[in-house]
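User: Predict the complex with S-adenosylmethionine.
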Amino acid sequence: MNENVLLFDVKKGIKLMADFDNNRFQSKNQEYATPWGLFKVLDDEFHFTLDVCADNKNHKVDTYFTEQDNALTQDWNGVCWMNPPYKDMKKWIIKAYNESVKNNSVVVCLIPARTNTSWWHDYCMKGEIRFIKGRPKFEGCIHGLPQPLAVVVFGKQYKNTYKSVIF
Ligand SMILES: C[S@@+](CC[C@H](N)C(=O)[O-])C[C@H]1O[C@@H](n2cnc3c(N)ncnc32)[C@H](O)[C@@H]1O
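Assistant: Here is the predicted structure with S-adenosylmethionine placed in the model:
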């Protein structure tokens, strides 16, 4: 199903809900960096070796891919950190899952908890999901992000488990 589809009252022909991604919840800035406090808790646990979505200023790990490298076309080895641009979430989640299977990597994803999408059910639910309680404040932002977030972990020892976490 196309998650961007608009919902209509078929009898009256009126729009019932705004476009979920394009109106209310899509971040205006796709470059928002992960809060260092949140990242540190996860880095202390996982010891990341690759940041797959970064630029020369916001990378969280010394080894990283940028938009020019296009991580979607690269192999992801080791322990990977992924805070992707929120557009094209489906592509990023499919890539993260496939790389964890293909390369036996661990991929830790900080993503919007869009629990009604096909990519959430088909991919995220194969991993370990940590639902974030509260609104993490991204680097350079005054307020916490209002949309629900989750950390999803893909890797052979992280399967089908769910918990609530606070950063
Ligand atoms: C939300 S920021 C995350 C930055 C940093 N990794 C962090 O966690 O704070 C997403 C980053 O992905 C980069 N990006 C966009 N498209 C990409 C691509 N195809 N391959 C790799 N990085 C990409 C953006 O330039 C941006 O710096």
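Residues 1-10, 13-27 have pLDDT under 50 and may be disordered.
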